[in-house]
Amino acid sequence: MAVKKDLGASCVHDNNATRRYKPRKENQSKSDKQVSESKVNWKKKLLITFWIKWEKVIYKFFQIQPIDENQPFLNARVRTYFGKTILLSDGEVIKRGDQVLELHLNNDMLFKMGMHARSPMQLAIQMIRITEQLLPKTLQFILNHPKYEKIKGVYGVSMIHRGSTQFGFTVVDLPKGLFLFLTKLYLHLLLLVFHPQGKRRMQNKRELLVPKIIAISTKEFICRYTIESLSTSPRSCLERK
Predict the structure, then answer these.
(1) DSSP conformational letter for 51
(2) DSSP-assigned letter for residue 206
(3) What is the pLDDT of residue 196?
(4) How close are the terminal C-alpha atoms of the chain, in Å?
(5) Cβ within 8 Å of residue 93, ≥6 positions away
(6) Average pLDDT, stretch 42-59?
(7) Residues 6 or more apart from 128 whose CB is under 8 A from it?
(8) What's the sign of the alpha-carbon dihedral 114, 117, 122, 125?
(9) Could you give the CA distance from residue 103 to residue 3 in angstroms, rounded to a whole number?
């Protein structure tokens, strides 16, 4: 998944900079150099190209569709949930056999955003802004779906889960077992491939790179992201009672 288009500013370099700024250029951070090096790493580009083509095949096979064709940062499909029961913050539950809208991030877009972002903070801000734009469209995606009345909630699994609660999502640990192991393996590999500093982050922040479930009930989603709700500010159903 697990979740918000994400969330685009580009990195601008001034070629006419005066000499007094030369030391700053010479003392650019190691992370900036690593990003520059990754841009010219043809092996990584080839791997990313292969991965993206493979993902397109998977998306087509499982009928995963973009929430917004013009801003395809979030993709989704309706499927049957087979995991353990999830207790959500509004008291609703998602249990085995329920229909859920499963979210997927566009890794190609995420990679390009990361390449142009000046810092992880800027990338996070971009993702938040895009998510804010796409969540109301996600609600329309649900309401227009043939199985709308059976969709119990929105669900995803991701390592990018910090900040999800501000959008009404409940963040839950994945139960220990084979699924957790395979999910961590897949997402860590994804990080190594797509993140400009993936290897460095794996070495320095491995304890933070834990995939988690993010979920929200359809009832809560409607309360927050209808047009009427957004005309003021997104609030939960409980806050309106």
Answers:
(1) H
(2) G
(3) 56
(4) 30
(5) 85, 86, 87
(6) 83
(7) 4, 6, 7, 163
(8) negative
(9) 6
